[in-house]
TrEMBL record:
UniProtKB keywords: FAD, Flavoprotein, Magnesium, Metal-binding, Transferase
Protein name per the record: FAD:protein FMN transferase
Residues passing through the membrane, by range: none
Kinase listed as a keyword: no
Reported cofactor(s): Mg(2+)
Entry's Gene Ontology molecular function annotations: transferase activity
Catalytic reaction equation(s): L-threonyl-[protein] + FAD = FMN-L-threonyl-[protein] + AMP + H(+)
Taxon lineage: Bacteria, Bacillati, Actinomycetota, Actinomycetes, Micromonosporales
Length: 261
């Protein structure tokens, strides 16, 4: 726990869920109370529930059982149907560049439904309702971030990683509320494909998206990366969201509303 000069107390928690480290940073008069502890515990419990339903790496998850025909949507947790419906909405919003219904099977089987590209942002955002509204909080799920800063507490300052240089921040932004999501090849290699061609896109190293909702910031970052060289032009059409693009040559471009640090 740290006590910054501004007089509030800051505390952090980290757990490994959904195959990645997820952290919660809280600011307030006393983030060590039993009520705050219970809120953070409930937050992580929500994420573990999401993993139980949606993990494509677990044979016993509901998404895996549904894929194998062992579970119907009617019998499944209602969240499964809601997320699949959100994936269909994302397909429409992105003109098919986010397509969770026809992704290649890593084991070489037939194309499958994999909502992982939407689930992380959705789950992190949904679980955040458990966190205390009178505290400032910043949650980070593998580099995708959601923040909240109530009146009387400072805004959060977030950094976008440089995809070509270790431990260097490419851009910094200050936010009181909202989300920052990034898609690229630095940490996971080539894992995003253009659904229209089935091939990895060309021309980009990284796309970051700022906006009010982490679910859609994450979806838009993935879809923009899948578009390749047309990413920036498309991002500029999104209402309420801004984008930052790093090309394969290392050039950095942003939409007109991207904040200047």
């Amino acid at each position: 726990m740290t006590v910054p000069a501004a007089g509030f107390v800051q505390r952090a928690w980290v757990e490994q869920i959904m195959g990645l480290p997820i952290s919660v940073h809280l600011r307030g008069a006393d983030p060590a109370t039993p009520a705050v502890e219970a809120a953070v515990t409930a937050y992580f419990a929500e994420l573990r529930r999401a993993d139980d339903i949606f993990s494509t790496y677990r044979a016993d998850s509901e998404i895996s059982r549904w894929q194998r025909g062992e579970l119907t949507l009617a019998a499944a947790d209602p969240l499964l149907g809601r997320v699949l419906a959100s994936c269909d909405q994302a397909f429409v919003r992105t003109s098919g560049f986010f397509d969770a219904r026809s992704l290649p099977d890593p084991l070489g089987g037939a194309p499958r439904t994999d909502p992982s590209g939407l689930v992380k942002g959705w789950a992190v955002e949904r679980a955040a309702r458990r966190l205390p509204a009178d505290h400032g909080w910043c949650v980070n799920a593998g580099g995708d971030v959601l923040v909240h800063a109530p009146d009387g507490l400072p805004a959060w300052r977030l950094g976008v990683e440089d995809p070509m240089r270790d431990d260097k921040i490419l851009r910094a932004v200050t936010m009181r509320r909202g989300a920052l999501a990034t898609s690229g090849t630095r940490h996971r290699g080539t894992h995003i494909v253009d659904p229209h061609t089935g091939q990895p896109p060309i021309g980009l190293r990284q796309v970051s998206v700022l906006g009010p909702e982490l679910l859609w910031a994450d979806v838009y970052a993935t879809a923009a990366f899948a578009r390749g060289t047309s990413a920036l032009e498309w991002l500029a059409t999104l209402d309420g969201y801004e984008g930052l693009v790093v090309t394969s040559e290392g050039r950095v471009h942003s939409t007109p509303g991207w904040p200047i640090a």
